[in-house]
Amino acid sequence: AQSVTQLDSHVSVSEGTPVLLRCNYSSSYSPSLFWYVQHPNKGLQLLLKYTSAATLVKGINGFEAEFKKSETSFHLTKPSAHMSDAAEYFCVVISYSSASKIIFGSGTRLSIRP
Amino acid sequence: DVKVTQSSRYLVKRTGEKVFLECVQDMDHENMFWYRQDPGLGLRLIYFSYDVKMKEKGDIPEGYSVSREKKERFSLILESASTNQTSMYLCASRPGQGGKYGYTFGSGTRLTVV
Predict the structure, then answer these.
(1) Which pLDDT band holds residue B10 (cuts at 50, 70, 90)?
(2) pLDDT tens across A10-47, in order?
(3) Which positions ≥6 away from A71 have C-beta within 8 Å?
(4) Alpha carbon of residue B84 to chain centroid
(5) Which residues in B have their CB inside 8 Å of a CB on A?
(6) Which residues 53-82 in chain A show a CB within 8 A of chain B?
(7) Closest chain A CA to residue B57
C-alpha cells in the first residue's frame, strides 16, 4: 500500500528566508514522487519529480527536493522565499504498478510574510 | 508548451440541470482523469480513461458520467446537478503506463450549483 503524509498543514516564512515543506511517503515499490503547486483558484502545476534517477531533484522557480530512501522522505526546499511562492503545495506519489493510482498529500499552505 | 484546457473557469448552474464540463489536451496522452477538490477532503478521483471510448470509475463516480469519443477530449457530465456537487473540478492527463510520468492539470472549473 502507498501513502503520503505532509507533516505541516501551514508554513509561514519571511520573504528572503529558506522554505522547507516536509513530505514522508510509504510505498511497497520504488515510488515516483512529485511536488505540485496550486495558486488560489488555479489548477495544479508540476514543480518537480523524482523517478529513480538523481536523488536531488531541481524544479522550477528555484525549488528542489531530495529523495531520502532511508528516511522515506521527499522534502521540498527553496533557499530564499519570494512573495509569489505563497500557494498550496502537494506532495504526490504515483504507483509503478497502477497508472491510475495517484496518492495526493493533504497539502501544505505556504504563507510569505513581507 | 503542452496544455490541458478546461472550457470554463467558473460555472453557476441550477439544481437538476444537466452539466457538461469539457477538457481538451494537446499532448496525445492516452490517459485522462477527472478530479474534484474540496476543502479538507483533498483531491478525489471521479473517473478516468485509458483510451478512446474506455472509462473506469474512480473513488466517487456517483452522480457523474464521462465521455471520451476522441483521444484529446474527456467530458464530465453531471446528469442532474445537485448542491453537493458544488466544487472545484480538475482535469488531468498523462502519457502511457507506469509511474514515471507526471500528470498535467488543467486550470480547473469552479462549479456552483444553486
Answers:
(1) very high
(2) 999 999 999 999 999 987 777 789 999 999 878 889 99
(3) A24
(4) 16
(5) 4, 6, 9, 31, 33, 42-43, 45, 48, 50, 56, 58, 88, 90, 92, 94, 96-108, 110
(6) none
(7) A100
Q: Tell me: the pLDDT tens digits for B16-31?
A: 999 999 999 998 899 9
**CA of residue A80 relative to chain centroid, distance:** 16
Q: Which residue of B has its CA nearest to A51?
A: B100
Contact yes or no for A48/A63 (Cβ under 8 A): yes
Interface probe with A: pick from B35, B87, B103, B109, most Cβ of A within 10 Å: B103
Q: Is A32 on the interface with B (CB under 8 A)?
A: yes
Identify the residue whose cell numbers are 477532503.
B41
What mean pLDDT comes out for the span B94-108? 80
Which residues in B lie closer than 8 A to residue A51 (C-beta atoms)? 99-100
Helix (H, G, I), strand (E, B) or coil at A84: helix
- Kindly give the pairing relationship between strand B42-49 and strand A56-58: unpaired
Q: CA angle B22-B85-A89, nearest 5°?
A: 75
> For A104, which of B42, B106, B108 is closest by C-beta distance?
B42
Whole-number average pLDDT of chain A: 89
Name B65's Cβ contacts closer than 8 Å, sequence gap at least 6.
B47, B76, B77, B79
- The answer, for A43 touching chain B at a CB cutoff of 8 Å, is yes
